[in-house]
Each structure stands twice: as C-alpha cells, then as structure tokens.
Amino acid sequence: MKSTGKLFISIEHFHHHAFEILDSHSVIRDNLIACLTSEIFIETRIKKTKNIESKAIKADFLNIEIRRLLRDKLVDEVKFEVNEEKGVFYFSSKKSSIGGFDFAILNHKKNLTSLRNLCFGELHYHEGEKRWKEFLHKNKDLTDIASKLENKNNIGININYNASGNDTPLIVGEIQFGNWALAYRDFFKVLKANVQNSIDCLVYIVPTGNLEKMLSDGIVTFDKSVKILNDFAKVISVPVWVIGIDLK
Fold first, then answer.
1. Bridge partners of residue 243, in order along the sequence
2. Buried b vs exposed e over 121-134: b needs ≥16 C-beta within 10 Å?
3. Comparing C-alpha atoms, which of 14, 200, 170 is closest to residue 77?
4. Fold entry, domain 4-106+174-247
C-alpha cells in the first residue's frame, strides 16, 4: 500500500577523471545529487521469481519521477530525449524522441553555433534554413540565442564559437533500469557522440541495493556497469559518473 519512498545515492563510481570534472562544476554536481536524494511517488507491484513472490515497484513510473526531479531542479539547463547527429544535439520541448540520451545539460550557444554552420556554413545542408526554423519552432526558448548566430550575411562561411572558462559543460545522462545488455549500447552511444563533440561527462543512473531487488531480474545494475567500465577502460575514454541509487 506504500505510495512514496525516499530516493538516495547509495554508491558512486568515477571513471576516467569524472570526479575532477564534476568537482570543477560543483553547482551542477550538487543539483544532480539533490535530485537523486528526494522523496518520490512510487507504484508498487508483486514480483514473481521462480514462483516466489516479493514486493516490487514499477520501473516506468520510477523513471518518470526521476525525470520530474531533474526538470524541477534544472529548469533552464536540462533537456530530455536528446539525439546527437553530426555534432549537433537535437531535442524538442514539444515532442519526445526515442533512441537518444535520456537527458543532457548543454551549452546552447555552442550547440546552436554547430547547427548554424550545418545550415548556413561552408558545407551547409540542402534546405538548411528549413531545418534551422524547424528546430527553433520546437524550442522557442532558444530564439534569442539563435537570432545572434544566424548571420545570413555570411552564408557559406562558418562562424567560430569562442569558449570561456564559465561555459556550461556538456553532460549527457541515462536513467537505466532495462535489460543488462543495454549498458553496452549506452556506452557505445556516448563514444559515437564524442567523436564530434567533447563530452565532459556521462551521468549513468542505475539501481543498487534494495531498489535493484525491487525491479525486474536481469537488468542493468551498479555492479554490472562498473565491471563493463573496468573491462573496457582503455576503450571507453569518456568520463563517466555511475550513480547507484536506492530506495527506502
């Protein structure tokens, strides 16, 4: 009959300098920690394993609750269902897509500069203006930034993004309660995105402890995720913050 629970971080693992990167962006790190140490609503169910019944919760509802926490705490920063293509991260405030990262914290000016160059730059898309307008139509909150970058007087010329020490880091995230094999897909997906972008960190949220037991069998877990990272340490060069969450 329980309808709420306290989410908390039980254990963490930092792969490939993730700790140093997050420590240098402590506000974002602390906001993410605050999201994952909160009271949440849950939907309970009964799980059967070899005809033995045990208490469990619904993973889909848990995923929705974690997204709600992220949205409430990181209002101006976080985007959901983010797809990467040719160095640009696409998302929509109106419609979710499937197959990308569950969420991302982006430097929107840098991302829009990359999109502007693809639409109007040296080797621009056919119907680039249409693609540009479609993206902004779906994300009206970025119109002001985009208006300063469009620069139609310089069509055929790429514009440079001037980085500064206060830039928002590029952080992508996954909330993973699915089949254990999905962990491999997630890690290779971030490697692909890193080819044309310098991904600062992948935040990988997975279950452990009691929460792991209350979800389905054969799922991605904290221990399995860390093992993959250790086994492929020389291949997975992107910093990864693995967060093992639990419920009480």
1. 12, 205
2. beebeeebeebbee
3. 170
4. Restriction Endonuclease (3.40.91)
Q: Which stretch of DSSP H or E encloses residue 214?
A: helix 209-214
CA distance 48 to 144: 53
Q: pTM of the entire structure?
A: 0.92
Question: Max alpha carbon distance in the chain (Å)?
Answer: 70
Give the integer Cα–Cα distance in Å for 3 and 27. 31
Which residues have a Cβ under 8 Å from the Cβ of 58 and sit 6 or more positions away? 42, 43, 44, 45
**For the segment 133-147, what is each residue's pLDDT rounded down to a tens digit?**
999 999 999 999 898
CA dihedral 144, 134, 103, 29 (to 10 degrees): -10
Is the distance from CB of 180 to CB of 224 less than 8 angstroms?
A: yes
| Side-chain half-sphere exposure of 122, counting CA atoms within 13 A | 4
CATH 3.40.91.20 domain position(s) in the chain: 4-106+174-247
Q: Which two tokens stand for residue 161?
A: 């993004």
Task: Please name the helix (run of DSSP H) or strand (run of DSSP E) that holds residue 226, with its range, or none.
Answer: helix 222-231
Q: What is the CB neighbour count within 10 angstroms for residue 8?
A: 16
List the end-to-end C-alpha distance of the chain, in Å, as a whole number.
14
d(CA 43, CA 222): 22
Helix (H, G, I), strand (E, B) or coil at 82: strand
Q: What is the pLDDT of residues 54-90, one digit of tens each?
A: 889 999 999 999 999 999 888 667 899 999 998 999 9
